[in-house]
Amino acid sequence: MSSDIQPAPGSPADEITVEANGDNLHAVIDFIDAHLEASGCPPKTRMHMDLAAEEIFVNIANYAYAPDKGNATVRAEVSGDPVTVTITFIDSGVPFDPLKKADPDTTLSADERAIGGLGVFLTKKLMDDVSYEYRDGQNILSIKKAFEVESR
Amino acid sequence: MLTINKTIENGKAVVNPQGRLDTTTAPELESALKEIIPGTSELVLDLEGLEYISSAGLRVLLSAQKAMNKQGSMKLCHVNDTITEIFDVTGFSDILTIE
Predict the structure, then answer these.
(1) Could you tell me if B41 lies within 8 Å of chain A, comparing CB atoms?
(2) Of the four listed, A86, A92, A107, B40, which is most buried by Cβ atoms within 10 Å?
(3) Are the beta carbons of B89 and A107 separated by less than 8 Å?
């Protein structure tokens, strides 16, 4: 790895693979948080990453393999200048590009607004970059955000 | 983890969800509100101590707002900066009453 920022000694591995189900959401978030904390990521950026990660993982858990079961791999990397965190989600479920979904109209009144459809929208808004590709039978979705390292 | 405190008096309910309102915990707030809303004309959601909200939590707030629009009022108080930003990005700042 050629990054400037190396995870602190004893920080978690760069990748975890879990069964894609809602019960594993917290394992995924804990993995990401531990990685970000070790990298000096400020709490606000961490919350935004958690939020985007939750939306993506829950989507995979609900739709990628239904009604069967399957795994999701989550990869975390912090590198570069400016320091940027990249979280990549990989599953072998049905091809699905969540970024194709139309954005909700955020100017409607409460009564006019549909319940739901905000997860992907929030992810796009809060991240610097979101990309999707389908390669070798896998959905690969990456979210990226730069941050200023907090002094400790 | 989400803890929900509530006080109900003369048709006014104050609900204080503390912790993380995410996909796992949003159903807890949803069922608490479903129980409370039928007899309530004034609903206050005190978000002091709410650290995190995802789209699952936003869904619950929007459903509550829709229900309260038919029978009374709903407002939110003690909303921290991080959560305010999520409300701003999603347009919820315009459809919720935030004190």
Answers:
(1) no
(2) B40
(3) no
